[in-house]
Amino acid sequence: MKNVNLDNYFARKMQKRLLICYINTTQGNFTADSLVIATGGRQFGLNVIPQTPGLVSINVDRNVLPNFSELSGISLNASVTCNNHTFKDALLFTHKGLSGPVILQISNYWTVSDEIIINLLPDIHLIEKIAAWQIRNPKAEVKNLISKYLPKKLIQKILERTDFTKPINQYNKNQIEEIAKLVHKWILIPTGTEGYKKAEVTRGGIDTNELSSKNFETRQVKGLYFIGEVLDVTGWLGGYNLQWAWSSGYCAGLVA
Ligand SMILES: Cc1cc2nc3c(=O)[nH]c(=O)nc-3n(C[C@H](O)[C@H](O)[C@H](O)COP(=O)(O)OP(=O)(O)OC[C@H]3O[C@@H](n4cnc5c(N)ncnc54)[C@H](O)[C@@H]3O)c2cc1C
Q: pTM of the full predicted structure?
């Protein structure tokens, strides 16, 4: 702002109840009549939805599967459900738990103590397969047959609690259903996530009800804008978060 009588300028602004910002930065001090915040900020009395890491790997109690870390590196296509949201994509076993796109996606819907349900063979109906195997390969072991579709190391651990060494024709209906459940409906309660250090986004943030949905100006303070990830807007994997940051910034930039 050049050649402006600041006293008059601010007096006029105050009469109009418009925002006057004094910003102290390492690059100097600035004054402005509108402010776009793209960093996170809470000092304006706006409602903030609690923040948690999103698009992030999850940790799993090592007792869930014996020697869980031995599975590290295994990847497969799975579907994962949490709180009525389901994604199907690559799943990766890590030393501490689970990762891969399908886990990053579902992590946006997980909160502490929620369970996740993993279908390790989403494209196969295991009960029907086993029925067919009982006719075609009656003497084969179930783990050898399932290992056509899943890594043997994994299937061995998943089925460890059942007696999976018998020939397939010796399993009754209930036992087959139990095996199918372990594969199609593996239920886990993650112990936590890998946290902000590894998260791609922050869930939560400034409540969107506080803002105009057209230009992201706050309803309470004229001239104050919030855009991008600082808002309670979290996208899926696939570039949606960057798109949101750029698009909301553009809309605010048109008027700020
Ligand atoms: C590893 C990783 C991978 C990602 N991959 C993708 C992807 O593939 N696709 C996608 O859509 N999204 C991805 N994201 C998310 C995406 O990068 C963010 O959602 C997006 O950059 C948010 O933009 P923003 O401008 O709101 O905030 P940011 O990009 O976080 O920018 C905020 C800026 O504010 C500065 N700042 C913070 N506090 C202060 C302060 N007090 N004073 C001064 N400056 C401050 C920060 O230094 C930073 O430069 C990824 C994120 C990470 C971490």
A: 0.88
